[in-house]
Amino acid sequence: TLIKATPLYCSSEQHTHTQCRLPTSSEVHTALRVAARSLTLATRQPAINFVSHRFESTIVQPAAKPWRSGWRILRRTAYVGTAAWFVYGGYNIYTARHPLAQAAFDPEKKTIVILGSGWASTAFLKDIDTVNYNVVCIRGSHFRCQHKDYAQSRAKSRRTFCFTLTFPIPSQVIVSPRNYFLFTPLLPSTTVGTVDFRSIIEPIRYITRHKSREVKVYEAECSDIDPVKKTIVINDNSEIKGSVAQQSLPYDYLIIGTGCQNATFGIKGVEEYACFLKEVWDAQKIRTRLMDCIETAAFAGQPEEEIERLLHMVVVGGGPTGVEYAAELHDFLKDDLVDWYPDIAGKVNITLVEALQTVLPVFSKQLIEYTETTFKEQNIKILTKTMVKEVRQKEILVKDADGSERTIPYGLLVWATGNTTRPFIRSLMEKLPESQTVRRGLAVDELLRLQGAEDIWALGDVTATKYAPTAQVASQQGKYLARMFNLMAIKDKLEAQVVAMSEGPEKDKQIRKINRLKDIKPFHYSHQGSLAYIGSEKAIADLPLFHGNISAGGVATYVFWRSAYLSNLFSIRNRTLVAMDWIKKNVFGRDISRE
Known about the structure:
Domain FAD/NAD(P)-binding: 111-478
CATH topology of the largest domain: FAD/NAD(P)-binding domain
Oligomer: single chain
Helix content: 40-55%
Catalytic activity: a ubiquinone + NADH + H(+) = a ubiquinol + NAD(+); a quinone + NADH + H(+) = a quinol + NAD(+)
Pfam families: NDH2_C (PF22366), Pyr_redox_2 (PF07992)
CATH class of the largest domain: Alpha Beta
Domain External alternative NADH-ubiquinone oxidoreductase-like C-terminal: 527-591
Shape: globular
Structural class: alpha/beta
Radius of gyration: 39 Å
Strand content: 15-25%
Family: Belongs to the NADH dehydrogenase family.
């Protein structure tokens, strides 16, 4: 077969078949050896490749261990998550820093006046849809109203500017004696330098400039409300005044969220000698007076009795504010004063005075006992069932549970108890004697409408409701009212469309929608729990769980307390600043300089 397959050998110079010859025997043998070698290699190559593949897959490249594979996935996920967080945070920071253009003031829309810049007013302002309204905000210690366009638009349609509010198809005006929102739960931390006070305030214009329509903001105080003429009077109480210091503003809808002022209960000397803890300037005053007491006690030749008086810090009020301030003061003493004032730090005493039987009455019995035990370990003295009868320049007169009276000397007195209505609120209540019969605040119905007046709503601490005067209640009321106003705007639009529609199934459908929107559910408060800091990096929490409560206290609760407050801060700017303040305090300590 091989010979038959072997071609005839022909001379390169001959081209005829007769010139070709058969191969010789030696040439046949050579061809046989080449063919046999090729055949052997062809049959062996698949086997070699197979063995090499098996060798590489089982020995040279062993399979990765499962835990290594899981760690690799986790690490890559962390990288992606971190990158996404930076992108998201950067985007939020950029958009917060660069607000977009807003729609102009529309004279055809109704005017909502919002009074105040607290939890209720700010929650309402944040959630209200300004597409349907013109909004004017008056907030702060001074006010200027020179808006000529507004006066001209008033002639075309009824408008009103007042404290803070927004309603369907209106303009929005905010009036407040301060031009910022204050995160009050962290206010006690600012009194000793744990947190800077600018880290917990959010300028109102940071909110209004991000609304779809222009919102007017005026820093002023409201001195009078006329519910019949639907006007308010605002005053510029700043140190620098212009040619206009008082103005009367009309409104279509008025939202009152001014909160309360500190109550002295008619006790002599409270306003003159005590420090309140409700506003930023209160915290600044406390911090200045605290350092004054410490430096005066360290003055050369100071008598021992006077040193004890100067270093005795008294807190009146056993609620969350008073307890948290006492706790922050203890931490300042333990963490900082011991290092920088070693000669007098051991002489500082803290006393908490409470007229009720226990401190923190809104918390469970177990947490009250835990707080009292912790304060005892921190050498914070608690005087319960003790009433303050008079405040003097260097001492307070108290009445104990047995009826006996005694004096307690002090260097710093912090008054953290009681709320009362503001003067212009009392004036409004006097104008509505038949419906406003509750002395502690404005009476409202289940929809938060002021009883005895039209187109006025009241929110937060300024009202007399069954709910406690807390930030949670005020914030939920503001959000509820904003949703109600947004639904009312939709209802008004549908009603305008129905008027122009002819009879038919489509009109009936729109009417059914309008009837559903008219069915507004009353306000319902959902309690989210209570938190309080008690010092030494410990906190307490009373949280709702199903149909009961869960109580916790300690270091782990302190971590939860911090994370909860950090997440509830108003903006990413506030969260970043507060987190940096906490880190700065742990690294460098608190600032002890006197402002």
